[in-house]
Amino acid sequence: MTLDTLVMQVFSGFSLFSVLVLMALGLTIVFGLMGVINMAHGELMAMGSYATYVTSVVFQRYFPELMGWYFIIGIGVAFLVTFAFGFLLERCFIRFMYNRPLDTLLATWGLSLVLQQLFRQVFGPKEVSVPTVQWLQGAWKVSEGLELPLNRIFIIGLTFVIAAAVFVFLYRSRWGLRIRAVTQNRAMAGAAGINTARVDSVTFALGCGLAGIAGSSFTMLASTGPVSGQQYLVDTFIVVVFGGVESLLGTFLSAFAIGQTQISLEYLTTGSMAKAITLLVVIVLLFFRPNGLFATKVRR
């Protein structure tokens, strides 16, 4: 393996890592902090992708001179759409199923099927794609035999920015303090005057919004279909569980390890075999560390 090939493999691993992190950050909040098994998380990613697609269509039709900015706006639209949907979903549906994990799993799985069918009805069964903005076209030529696509570089950079923003929100803001207080001791947080119901709604909506950003980023890497989100759902759950369900750092490092391992194995074997071996390695490691790499003690 040449140096250029090695660098390209690492870069490809970072590309997979970026999607996994953006998906897993939302799932870490929803599953890790709230204990909600949201099987529709992949469809929220697809919703973000479709929101970006609709944004591109609107800009192409009504604001063609601003097409260079549609993707940035599309990221914001994807976040707002999925955040609002998540907020309403928690208010009208999820809040009645807390502490009922099996019911939540089945209900959100049913919701995922409903959303998939809704996507088929609205956008059709075929995959849709968005145009790459001009400033993300082309590649950065590192050497004579190595070029790194600009759109993937942007997505990787966006991942680090979003991860830093989530960290600041959870650990440096008043809302983050409330979320962590409710997570660690709900009864005491309520006794201290924190509106735990509102915190639940905002927390769940934030996790959904992050899935929307993941979906928006996904449009720069591949086309979007009704079941696109399901392709990453299992991997995302593995990332969250392997990293530690309440740990942002664990999620970050777990996504990096799984992304790099899977891409490296794909170079040596096939895609399906690489996933199988990666899953086997994770299962073995979880046997020795059942709470994940970075387990956090939480009082319910």
UniProtKB/TrEMBL annotation:
Chief place of localization: membrane
GO cellular component, as recorded: plasma membrane
The keyword Zinc appears for this protein: no
Pfam family, one: BPD_transp_2
UniProt-recorded name of the protein: Inner-membrane translocator
InterPro entries per UniProt: ABC_transp_permease, ABC_UrtB_bac, BCAA_transport_permease
TM regions (residue ranges): 12-37, 44-63, 69-89, 101-119, 153-171, 204-225, 237-258, 265-288
UniProt record similarity statement: Belongs to the binding-protein-dependent transport system permease family. LivHM subfamily.
GO molecular function: transmembrane transporter activity
Protein's membrane topology: Multi-pass membrane protein
Keywords per UniProt: Amino-acid transport, Cell membrane, Membrane, Transmembrane, Transmembrane helix, Transport
PANTHER family according to UniProt: ABC TRANSPORTER PERMEASE PROTEIN, BRANCHED-CHAIN AMINO ACID TRANSPORT SYSTEM PERMEASE PROTEIN LIVH
Subcellular location field: Cell inner membrane
GO biological process: amino acid transport
